[in-house]
Amino acid sequence: MDTYRLFINGEWVSGGPELEVLNKYTRQAMATLPTARREDVEQAVAAAARAAPRMAEMPAFRRSEILARASSLIRERKEDLAHTIAAEAGKALKYARLEVDRSVSVFAIAAEEAKRVHGETVPMDAVPAGEGYFGYYVRRPVGVVAAISPFNFPINLVAHKVAPALAAGNTVVLKPASTTPVTAVKLCQILQDAGLTDGAINLVVGSGGTVGEWLVSDPRVAKVSFTGSPPVGRRIMEVASGTVKRVTLELGNTSPVIVAPDADLEQAARRCAVGAYYNSGQVCISVQRIYGQRQILDPFTEQFVKASQAMVVGDPLDERVDVGPMIDVTEAQRAEAWVQEAQAGGAQALTGGRRDGPVYWPTVLAGVKPEMKVVAQEVFAPVASVIPYDDFEEALRLADATEYGLQAAVFTRDINRVFQAVRRLNFGGVIINDTPSFRLDQMPYGGNRQSGVEREGVRFAIEEMTNLQMVAIRL
Protein backbone atom coordinates (compact mmCIF):
# COMPACT_ATOMS: atom_id res chain seq x y z
CA MET A 1 0.00 0.00 0.00
CA ASP A 2 1.41 3.35 -1.05
CA THR A 3 1.63 6.40 1.21
CA TYR A 4 1.22 9.95 -0.12
CA ARG A 5 1.17 13.49 1.26
CA LEU A 6 -0.50 16.83 0.66
CA PHE A 7 1.31 19.22 -1.69
CA ILE A 8 1.67 22.80 -0.42
CA ASN A 9 4.10 25.46 -1.62
CA GLY A 10 6.21 22.97 -3.56
CA GLU A 11 6.59 20.52 -0.66
CA TRP A 12 4.98 17.21 0.26
CA VAL A 13 3.62 17.69 3.78
CA SER A 14 1.66 15.86 6.45
CA GLY A 15 -1.82 16.84 7.55
CA GLY A 16 -4.67 15.50 9.61
CA PRO A 17 -6.20 12.02 9.95
CA GLU A 18 -5.17 9.50 7.30
CA LEU A 19 -7.58 8.69 4.49
CA GLU A 20 -7.61 5.17 3.04
CA VAL A 21 -8.10 4.98 -0.72
CA LEU A 22 -9.73 1.74 -1.83
CA ASN A 23 -9.40 -0.33 -4.97
CA LYS A 24 -13.02 0.00 -6.04
CA TYR A 25 -13.31 -3.58 -7.31
CA THR A 26 -11.51 -5.54 -4.58
CA ARG A 27 -12.47 -3.04 -1.82
CA GLN A 28 -8.94 -3.40 -0.46
CA ALA A 29 -6.91 -0.37 0.64
CA MET A 30 -4.42 0.68 -2.05
CA ALA A 31 -3.05 3.94 -0.62
CA THR A 32 -3.23 6.37 2.28
CA LEU A 33 -2.79 10.11 2.46
CA PRO A 34 -3.63 12.72 5.08
CA THR A 35 -6.77 14.80 5.04
CA ALA A 36 -6.32 18.56 5.24
CA ARG A 37 -6.97 20.45 8.46
CA ARG A 38 -8.13 24.05 8.53
CA GLU A 39 -4.52 25.20 8.95
CA ASP A 40 -3.44 23.12 5.94
CA VAL A 41 -6.05 24.78 3.74
CA GLU A 42 -4.96 28.16 5.11
CA GLN A 43 -1.34 27.41 4.20
CA ALA A 44 -2.31 26.19 0.72
CA VAL A 45 -4.33 29.33 -0.06
CA ALA A 46 -1.59 31.53 1.39
CA ALA A 47 1.02 29.79 -0.77
CA ALA A 48 -1.15 30.24 -3.87
CA ALA A 49 -1.71 33.92 -3.03
CA ARG A 50 2.03 34.52 -2.59
CA ALA A 51 2.81 32.77 -5.88
CA ALA A 52 0.07 34.60 -7.80
CA PRO A 53 2.18 37.68 -8.69
CA ARG A 54 5.01 35.45 -9.96
CA MET A 55 2.65 33.47 -12.16
CA ALA A 56 0.97 36.63 -13.46
CA GLU A 57 4.36 38.11 -14.41
CA MET A 58 5.72 34.89 -15.93
CA PRO A 59 6.14 35.33 -19.71
CA ALA A 60 3.59 33.49 -21.80
CA PHE A 61 6.25 31.43 -23.55
CA ARG A 62 7.49 30.17 -20.19
CA ARG A 63 4.01 29.11 -19.05
CA SER A 64 3.60 27.42 -22.41
CA GLU A 65 6.86 25.50 -22.01
CA ILE A 66 5.87 24.21 -18.57
CA LEU A 67 2.46 23.06 -19.79
CA ALA A 68 3.96 21.39 -22.87
CA ARG A 69 6.48 19.58 -20.66
CA ALA A 70 3.67 18.44 -18.37
CA SER A 71 1.80 17.10 -21.40
CA SER A 72 4.88 15.09 -22.41
CA LEU A 73 5.36 13.73 -18.90
CA ILE A 74 1.72 12.61 -18.72
CA ARG A 75 2.25 10.74 -21.98
CA GLU A 76 5.42 9.13 -20.64
CA ARG A 77 3.66 8.00 -17.45
CA LYS A 78 0.47 6.90 -19.19
CA GLU A 79 0.45 3.29 -18.03
CA ASP A 80 1.03 4.13 -14.39
CA LEU A 81 -1.67 6.81 -14.46
CA ALA A 82 -4.13 4.55 -16.29
CA HIS A 83 -3.64 1.70 -13.82
CA THR A 84 -4.08 4.14 -10.94
CA ILE A 85 -7.35 5.42 -12.41
CA ALA A 86 -8.63 1.88 -13.04
CA ALA A 87 -7.88 0.90 -9.45
CA GLU A 88 -9.05 3.96 -7.52
CA ALA A 89 -11.99 4.95 -9.78
CA GLY A 90 -13.06 1.49 -10.99
CA LYS A 91 -12.87 2.65 -14.61
CA ALA A 92 -12.13 -0.04 -17.21
CA LEU A 93 -8.46 0.12 -18.14
CA LYS A 94 -9.21 0.73 -21.82
CA TYR A 95 -11.17 3.86 -20.89
CA ALA A 96 -8.63 4.90 -18.26
CA ARG A 97 -5.99 4.96 -21.01
CA LEU A 98 -8.27 7.10 -23.17
CA GLU A 99 -8.74 9.49 -20.27
CA VAL A 100 -4.97 9.87 -19.88
CA ASP A 101 -4.67 10.51 -23.62
CA ARG A 102 -7.27 13.25 -23.32
CA SER A 103 -5.38 14.91 -20.48
CA VAL A 104 -2.25 14.88 -22.65
CA SER A 105 -4.27 16.83 -25.21
CA VAL A 106 -5.70 19.25 -22.63
CA PHE A 107 -2.23 20.27 -21.44
CA ALA A 108 -0.97 20.49 -25.04
CA ILE A 109 -3.91 22.74 -25.98
CA ALA A 110 -3.32 24.84 -22.87
CA ALA A 111 0.34 25.23 -23.82
CA GLU A 112 -0.77 26.80 -27.11
CA GLU A 113 -3.55 28.89 -25.59
CA ALA A 114 -1.10 30.33 -23.03
CA LYS A 115 0.44 32.23 -25.96
CA ARG A 116 -2.93 33.59 -27.08
CA VAL A 117 -4.26 35.29 -23.93
CA HIS A 118 -4.77 38.78 -25.32
CA GLY A 119 -7.23 41.61 -25.80
CA GLU A 120 -8.09 43.96 -28.65
CA THR A 121 -8.54 47.60 -29.46
CA VAL A 122 -11.80 49.41 -28.78
CA PRO A 123 -13.06 52.06 -31.29
CA MET A 124 -13.30 54.94 -28.82
CA ASP A 125 -14.43 57.44 -31.44
CA ALA A 126 -17.59 55.41 -32.11
CA VAL A 127 -19.25 57.99 -29.83
CA PRO A 128 -18.58 61.75 -29.77
CA ALA A 129 -17.15 61.69 -26.25
CA GLY A 130 -14.46 59.22 -27.36
CA GLU A 131 -12.90 61.49 -29.97
CA GLY A 132 -9.23 62.01 -29.19
CA TYR A 133 -8.90 58.78 -27.16
CA PHE A 134 -7.16 55.51 -27.92
CA GLY A 135 -8.53 52.42 -26.17
CA TYR A 136 -7.77 48.75 -25.78
CA TYR A 137 -8.30 45.97 -23.27
CA VAL A 138 -6.13 43.11 -22.06
CA ARG A 139 -6.83 39.97 -20.04
CA ARG A 140 -5.31 39.61 -16.59
CA PRO A 141 -5.35 36.45 -14.42
CA VAL A 142 -7.92 36.52 -11.62
CA GLY A 143 -5.40 35.19 -9.05
CA VAL A 144 -6.12 32.13 -6.91
CA VAL A 145 -8.38 29.45 -8.43
CA ALA A 146 -10.01 26.75 -6.28
CA ALA A 147 -10.43 23.62 -8.41
CA ILE A 148 -12.86 21.08 -6.95
CA SER A 149 -12.97 17.95 -9.08
CA PRO A 150 -15.12 14.78 -9.10
CA PHE A 151 -14.22 11.09 -8.91
CA ASN A 152 -15.31 9.97 -12.37
CA PHE A 153 -12.47 11.55 -14.38
CA PRO A 154 -9.61 11.77 -11.87
CA ILE A 155 -7.10 13.28 -14.29
CA ASN A 156 -8.97 14.79 -17.21
CA LEU A 157 -11.47 16.88 -15.25
CA VAL A 158 -8.60 18.01 -13.04
CA ALA A 159 -6.71 18.92 -16.22
CA HIS A 160 -9.67 20.97 -17.46
CA LYS A 161 -9.42 23.15 -14.38
CA VAL A 162 -5.68 23.24 -13.68
CA ALA A 163 -4.29 23.60 -17.20
CA PRO A 164 -6.38 26.66 -18.25
CA ALA A 165 -5.80 28.31 -14.87
CA LEU A 166 -2.02 27.99 -15.23
CA ALA A 167 -2.12 28.98 -18.90
CA ALA A 168 -3.83 32.23 -17.90
CA GLY A 169 -1.23 32.96 -15.21
CA ASN A 170 -3.27 31.97 -12.16
CA THR A 171 -2.35 29.78 -9.21
CA VAL A 172 -4.43 26.81 -8.06
CA VAL A 173 -5.54 25.06 -4.90
CA LEU A 174 -6.82 21.66 -6.00
CA LYS A 175 -9.27 19.55 -4.00
CA PRO A 176 -9.84 16.22 -5.74
CA ALA A 177 -12.58 13.79 -4.78
CA SER A 178 -11.73 11.93 -1.58
CA THR A 179 -12.45 8.62 -3.29
CA THR A 180 -9.91 9.23 -6.09
CA PRO A 181 -7.09 11.52 -4.89
CA VAL A 182 -4.05 9.46 -5.92
CA THR A 183 -4.19 10.44 -9.61
CA ALA A 184 -4.25 14.12 -8.59
CA VAL A 185 -1.19 13.54 -6.38
CA LYS A 186 0.66 12.12 -9.37
CA LEU A 187 -0.40 15.05 -11.56
CA CYS A 188 1.00 17.50 -9.01
CA GLN A 189 4.28 15.58 -9.10
CA ILE A 190 4.27 15.88 -12.88
CA LEU A 191 3.74 19.65 -12.71
CA GLN A 192 6.57 19.96 -10.20
CA ASP A 193 8.82 17.89 -12.47
CA ALA A 194 7.77 20.12 -15.39
CA GLY A 195 9.25 23.13 -13.58
CA LEU A 196 6.16 24.86 -12.21
CA THR A 197 6.99 27.50 -9.63
CA ASP A 198 6.40 26.65 -5.95
CA GLY A 199 2.92 27.55 -4.77
CA ALA A 200 1.37 27.62 -8.24
CA ILE A 201 -0.31 24.26 -7.64
CA ASN A 202 -1.34 23.05 -4.18
CA LEU A 203 -3.19 19.88 -3.23
CA VAL A 204 -5.53 19.47 -0.26
CA VAL A 205 -7.74 16.46 0.39
CA GLY A 206 -10.91 16.16 2.44
CA SER A 207 -14.67 16.37 2.38
CA GLY A 208 -16.62 19.05 0.59
CA GLY A 209 -18.36 20.02 3.81
CA THR A 210 -15.06 20.99 5.43
CA VAL A 211 -12.13 21.44 3.03
CA GLY A 212 -14.37 22.43 0.13
CA GLU A 213 -16.26 25.05 2.10
CA TRP A 214 -13.06 26.46 3.62
CA LEU A 215 -11.77 27.01 0.09
CA VAL A 216 -14.96 28.45 -1.34
CA SER A 217 -15.46 30.89 1.53
CA ASP A 218 -11.86 32.19 1.56
CA PRO A 219 -11.83 35.79 0.26
CA ARG A 220 -8.38 35.25 -1.29
CA VAL A 221 -9.88 32.71 -3.69
CA ALA A 222 -10.97 34.68 -6.74
CA LYS A 223 -12.48 31.83 -8.75
CA VAL A 224 -14.11 28.48 -7.97
CA SER A 225 -14.37 25.78 -10.62
CA PHE A 226 -16.53 22.84 -9.56
CA THR A 227 -17.76 19.68 -11.26
CA GLY A 228 -20.23 17.50 -9.37
CA SER A 229 -23.82 17.15 -8.23
CA PRO A 230 -26.46 19.90 -8.43
CA PRO A 231 -27.06 19.98 -4.64
CA VAL A 232 -23.37 20.55 -3.97
CA GLY A 233 -23.25 23.14 -6.74
CA ARG A 234 -26.09 25.04 -5.13
CA ARG A 235 -24.33 24.86 -1.78
CA ILE A 236 -21.16 26.30 -3.34
CA MET A 237 -23.20 29.22 -4.69
CA GLU A 238 -24.54 29.86 -1.18
CA VAL A 239 -21.12 29.72 0.46
CA ALA A 240 -19.46 31.79 -2.27
CA SER A 241 -22.10 34.49 -1.97
CA GLY A 242 -20.40 35.69 1.20
CA THR A 243 -17.48 36.94 -0.89
CA VAL A 244 -17.16 38.37 -4.39
CA LYS A 245 -15.74 35.70 -6.70
CA ARG A 246 -16.42 33.94 -9.96
CA VAL A 247 -17.95 30.46 -9.95
CA THR A 248 -18.06 27.86 -12.71
CA LEU A 249 -20.39 24.92 -12.10
CA GLU A 250 -20.66 21.83 -14.27
CA LEU A 251 -23.46 19.75 -12.78
CA GLY A 252 -25.84 16.95 -13.73
CA ASN A 253 -27.97 15.84 -16.67
CA THR A 254 -30.57 13.25 -17.68
CA SER A 255 -29.03 12.89 -21.12
CA PRO A 256 -31.65 12.30 -23.82
CA VAL A 257 -31.09 10.64 -27.19
CA ILE A 258 -33.63 10.85 -30.01
CA VAL A 259 -33.49 8.10 -32.64
CA ALA A 260 -35.32 9.21 -35.78
CA PRO A 261 -36.85 6.65 -38.19
CA ASP A 262 -34.19 7.40 -40.82
CA ALA A 263 -31.28 6.77 -38.44
CA ASP A 264 -28.67 4.04 -38.84
CA LEU A 265 -30.11 1.84 -36.10
CA GLU A 266 -27.09 -0.44 -35.74
CA GLN A 267 -24.73 2.49 -35.33
CA ALA A 268 -27.11 4.26 -32.94
CA ALA A 269 -27.55 1.14 -30.77
CA ARG A 270 -23.81 0.48 -30.61
CA ARG A 271 -22.93 4.05 -29.72
CA CYS A 272 -25.74 4.29 -27.16
CA ALA A 273 -24.47 1.16 -25.41
CA VAL A 274 -20.99 2.66 -25.07
CA GLY A 275 -22.43 6.02 -24.04
CA ALA A 276 -24.68 4.46 -21.41
CA TYR A 277 -22.24 2.07 -19.76
CA TYR A 278 -18.67 3.31 -19.99
CA ASN A 279 -17.39 4.24 -16.54
CA SER A 280 -20.39 2.29 -15.22
CA GLY A 281 -22.67 5.11 -16.35
CA GLN A 282 -21.06 7.48 -13.85
CA VAL A 283 -20.69 10.34 -16.32
CA CYS A 284 -22.83 13.47 -16.29
CA ILE A 285 -23.44 13.01 -20.02
CA SER A 286 -24.11 9.25 -19.96
CA VAL A 287 -26.97 8.09 -22.18
CA GLN A 288 -30.04 7.81 -19.94
CA ARG A 289 -33.26 8.46 -21.91
CA ILE A 290 -33.53 7.02 -25.44
CA TYR A 291 -36.56 8.11 -27.45
CA GLY A 292 -37.29 5.92 -30.47
CA GLN A 293 -39.99 6.47 -33.08
CA ARG A 294 -42.59 3.70 -32.63
CA GLN A 295 -42.06 2.05 -36.01
CA ILE A 296 -38.33 1.55 -35.35
CA LEU A 297 -38.32 1.22 -31.57
CA ASP A 298 -38.50 -2.60 -31.50
CA PRO A 299 -35.63 -3.24 -33.96
CA PHE A 300 -33.54 -0.53 -32.29
CA THR A 301 -34.25 -1.94 -28.82
CA GLU A 302 -33.31 -5.44 -29.96
CA GLN A 303 -29.93 -4.19 -31.17
CA PHE A 304 -29.41 -2.00 -28.11
CA VAL A 305 -30.09 -4.91 -25.75
CA LYS A 306 -27.72 -7.10 -27.77
CA ALA A 307 -24.98 -4.43 -27.55
CA SER A 308 -25.65 -4.02 -23.82
CA GLN A 309 -25.35 -7.75 -23.19
CA ALA A 310 -22.06 -7.84 -25.09
CA MET A 311 -20.44 -5.59 -22.49
CA VAL A 312 -17.86 -7.47 -20.41
CA VAL A 313 -18.35 -6.82 -16.69
CA GLY A 314 -15.68 -7.35 -14.04
CA ASP A 315 -12.30 -6.23 -12.73
CA PRO A 316 -11.42 -2.94 -14.46
CA LEU A 317 -7.74 -3.93 -14.53
CA ASP A 318 -8.66 -6.84 -16.83
CA GLU A 319 -7.94 -5.76 -20.42
CA ARG A 320 -11.16 -7.42 -21.64
CA VAL A 321 -13.52 -5.57 -19.28
CA ASP A 322 -15.86 -2.80 -20.45
CA VAL A 323 -17.79 -2.14 -17.22
CA GLY A 324 -16.22 -2.16 -13.77
CA PRO A 325 -17.63 -1.36 -10.33
CA MET A 326 -19.42 1.79 -9.32
CA ILE A 327 -17.55 4.14 -7.02
CA ASP A 328 -18.90 2.40 -3.92
CA VAL A 329 -21.45 -0.17 -2.79
CA THR A 330 -23.96 2.45 -1.63
CA GLU A 331 -24.14 3.94 -5.14
CA ALA A 332 -24.73 0.49 -6.64
CA GLN A 333 -27.44 -0.10 -4.05
CA ARG A 334 -29.05 3.23 -4.95
CA ALA A 335 -29.10 2.27 -8.65
CA GLU A 336 -30.60 -1.09 -7.74
CA ALA A 337 -33.30 0.60 -5.64
CA TRP A 338 -34.19 3.03 -8.43
CA VAL A 339 -34.56 0.19 -10.92
CA GLN A 340 -36.66 -1.86 -8.49
CA GLU A 341 -38.84 1.19 -7.88
CA ALA A 342 -39.36 1.54 -11.63
CA GLN A 343 -40.20 -2.15 -11.93
CA ALA A 344 -42.73 -1.84 -9.13
CA GLY A 345 -44.36 0.93 -11.18
CA GLY A 346 -44.63 -1.24 -14.30
CA ALA A 347 -41.23 -0.92 -15.99
CA GLN A 348 -39.50 -4.02 -17.37
CA ALA A 349 -35.77 -4.77 -17.27
CA LEU A 350 -34.97 -6.16 -20.73
CA THR A 351 -31.47 -7.01 -19.55
CA GLY A 352 -29.41 -6.37 -16.43
CA GLY A 353 -31.08 -5.34 -13.19
CA ARG A 354 -28.43 -7.29 -11.33
CA ARG A 355 -25.99 -6.20 -8.62
CA ASP A 356 -22.96 -7.91 -7.10
CA GLY A 357 -21.42 -5.72 -4.39
CA PRO A 358 -20.30 -2.47 -6.05
CA VAL A 359 -20.88 -3.86 -9.56
CA TYR A 360 -24.18 -3.13 -11.31
CA TRP A 361 -24.78 -4.83 -14.64
CA PRO A 362 -25.72 -2.81 -17.76
CA THR A 363 -29.49 -2.42 -17.58
CA VAL A 364 -32.08 -1.58 -20.23
CA LEU A 365 -35.54 -0.53 -19.06
CA ALA A 366 -38.78 -0.33 -21.03
CA GLY A 367 -42.25 0.75 -19.97
CA VAL A 368 -40.95 3.61 -17.83
CA LYS A 369 -42.99 6.68 -16.90
CA PRO A 370 -41.77 10.31 -16.95
CA GLU A 371 -42.09 10.70 -13.17
CA MET A 372 -39.88 7.69 -12.35
CA LYS A 373 -36.47 8.49 -10.87
CA VAL A 374 -34.71 6.60 -13.65
CA VAL A 375 -36.20 9.12 -16.10
CA ALA A 376 -36.69 12.35 -14.15
CA GLN A 377 -33.47 12.38 -12.12
CA GLU A 378 -29.84 11.79 -12.99
CA VAL A 379 -29.37 8.04 -12.58
CA PHE A 380 -25.54 8.19 -12.71
CA ALA A 381 -25.36 4.41 -13.12
CA PRO A 382 -25.31 1.89 -16.00
CA VAL A 383 -29.06 2.20 -16.57
CA ALA A 384 -30.78 3.43 -19.74
CA SER A 385 -34.46 3.51 -20.71
CA VAL A 386 -36.06 3.12 -24.16
CA ILE A 387 -39.18 5.24 -24.65
CA PRO A 388 -41.52 5.44 -27.68
CA TYR A 389 -42.67 8.59 -29.46
CA ASP A 390 -45.07 9.21 -32.34
CA ASP A 391 -43.62 12.20 -34.18
CA PHE A 392 -40.41 14.22 -34.05
CA GLU A 393 -42.08 17.21 -32.43
CA GLU A 394 -43.17 14.99 -29.54
CA ALA A 395 -39.66 13.58 -29.24
CA LEU A 396 -38.20 17.07 -28.90
CA ARG A 397 -40.78 17.97 -26.28
CA LEU A 398 -40.06 14.83 -24.24
CA ALA A 399 -36.29 15.23 -24.51
CA ASP A 400 -36.49 18.86 -23.37
CA ALA A 401 -38.87 18.13 -20.49
CA THR A 402 -36.18 18.27 -17.81
CA GLU A 403 -34.69 20.76 -15.38
CA TYR A 404 -31.25 19.92 -16.76
CA GLY A 405 -29.58 21.04 -19.95
CA LEU A 406 -26.04 19.75 -20.42
CA GLN A 407 -25.98 17.73 -23.66
CA ALA A 408 -28.52 15.96 -25.85
CA ALA A 409 -28.23 13.91 -29.02
CA VAL A 410 -30.18 13.11 -32.18
CA PHE A 411 -29.57 10.30 -34.65
CA THR A 412 -30.95 11.31 -38.06
CA ARG A 413 -29.96 11.82 -41.70
CA ASP A 414 -32.55 14.58 -42.19
CA ILE A 415 -30.97 18.05 -42.15
CA ASN A 416 -34.34 19.63 -41.36
CA ARG A 417 -34.61 17.52 -38.21
CA VAL A 418 -31.08 18.55 -37.28
CA PHE A 419 -31.85 22.26 -37.33
CA GLN A 420 -35.24 21.73 -35.71
CA ALA A 421 -33.48 19.97 -32.81
CA VAL A 422 -30.85 22.68 -32.50
CA ARG A 423 -33.57 25.34 -32.26
CA ARG A 424 -35.78 23.45 -29.81
CA LEU A 425 -33.40 21.75 -27.39
CA ASN A 426 -32.27 23.97 -24.52
CA PHE A 427 -28.95 22.25 -23.88
CA GLY A 428 -25.37 23.45 -23.76
CA GLY A 429 -24.50 20.93 -26.46
CA VAL A 430 -26.53 19.16 -29.16
CA ILE A 431 -24.75 16.18 -30.74
CA ILE A 432 -25.86 14.79 -34.11
CA ASN A 433 -25.33 11.11 -34.99
CA ASP A 434 -23.44 10.39 -31.82
CA THR A 435 -24.37 10.29 -28.15
CA PRO A 436 -24.53 13.08 -25.53
CA SER A 437 -21.31 11.65 -24.08
CA PHE A 438 -19.33 12.99 -27.06
CA ARG A 439 -16.83 15.62 -25.97
CA LEU A 440 -13.66 17.04 -27.46
CA ASP A 441 -11.38 18.87 -25.09
CA GLN A 442 -11.08 22.06 -27.14
CA MET A 443 -14.81 22.66 -27.55
CA PRO A 444 -16.92 24.79 -25.18
CA TYR A 445 -18.59 22.49 -22.69
CA GLY A 446 -21.16 23.23 -20.02
CA GLY A 447 -24.84 23.27 -19.26
CA ASN A 448 -27.96 25.38 -19.21
CA ARG A 449 -30.68 25.47 -16.56
CA GLN A 450 -29.75 23.32 -13.52
CA SER A 451 -26.79 21.78 -15.34
CA GLY A 452 -24.47 24.65 -14.47
CA VAL A 453 -23.07 28.05 -15.32
CA GLU A 454 -20.16 29.18 -17.50
CA ARG A 455 -18.12 26.91 -19.76
CA GLU A 456 -15.08 24.65 -19.76
CA GLY A 457 -12.87 23.77 -22.73
CA VAL A 458 -9.41 25.30 -22.49
CA ARG A 459 -9.89 28.60 -24.35
CA PHE A 460 -13.33 29.13 -22.85
CA ALA A 461 -12.15 28.30 -19.34
CA ILE A 462 -9.32 30.82 -19.74
CA GLU A 463 -11.90 33.49 -20.52
CA GLU A 464 -13.68 32.63 -17.26
CA MET A 465 -10.36 32.70 -15.36
CA THR A 466 -9.26 36.14 -16.49
CA ASN A 467 -10.45 39.70 -15.90
CA LEU A 468 -10.71 42.30 -18.63
CA GLN A 469 -8.64 45.40 -17.99
CA MET A 470 -9.66 48.40 -20.06
CA VAL A 471 -7.10 51.05 -20.96
CA ALA A 472 -8.18 54.49 -22.25
CA ILE A 473 -5.48 56.97 -23.35
CA ARG A 474 -6.26 60.59 -24.07
CA LEU A 475 -4.10 61.64 -26.99
Q: Which helices and strands, and how do they pair?
A:
Blueprint: E1 2-3, E2 6-8, E3 11-13, E4 18-22, E5 29-34, H1 38-57, H2 60-76, H3 78-89, H4 93-113, E6 120-122, E7 133-141, E8 144-148, H5 156-167, E9 171-175, H6 182-193, E10 201-203, H7 208-217, E11 221-227, H8 230-240, E12 246-250, E13 256-259, H9 265-277, E14 289-293, H10 294-309, H11 329-344, E15 348-351, E16 355-356, E17 359-360, E18 363-366, H12 373-376, E19 383-389, H13 392-400, E20 407-411, H14 415-424, E21 429-432, E22 452-453, H15 458-464, E23 466-474
Parallel strand pairs: 1-5, 8-9, 8-11, 9-10, 11-12, 13-14, 13-20, 14-19, 18-19, 20-21
Antiparallel strand pairs: 2-3, 4-5, 6-7, 7-23, 12-22, 15-18, 16-17
How would you describe what is shown here?
- This protein is an alpha/beta fold and 475 residues long.
- The chain has 2 domains: 2-251 and 449-474, Aldehyde Dehydrogenase, Chain A, domain 1; 256-432, Aldehyde Dehydrogenase, Chain A, domain 2, CATH 3.40.309.
- 40% of the residues lie in helices and 22% in strands.
- It contains 15 helices and 23 strands.
- Strands 15-18-19-14-13-20-21 form a 7-stranded mixed beta sheet, sandwiched between helices.
Annotation field: number of helices: 15
Structural class: alpha/beta
Low-confidence stretches: none
The overall pLDDT, averaged over residues, is 98
Task: Report the CATH topology name of the largest domain.
Answer: Aldehyde Dehydrogenase, Chain A, domain 1
Which strand-content bin applies to the residues?
Answer: 15-25%
Write down the domain tally: 2
Q: Name the helicity range.
A: 40-55%
Described by strand count, sense and barrel closure, the largest sheet is: 7 strands, mixed
CATH architecture of the largest domain: 3-Layer(aba) Sandwich
| First and last CA, distance | 67 Å
User: Based on CA inertia axes, which overall geometry fits?
Assistant: globular
Radius of gyration: 23 Å
Number of strands: 23
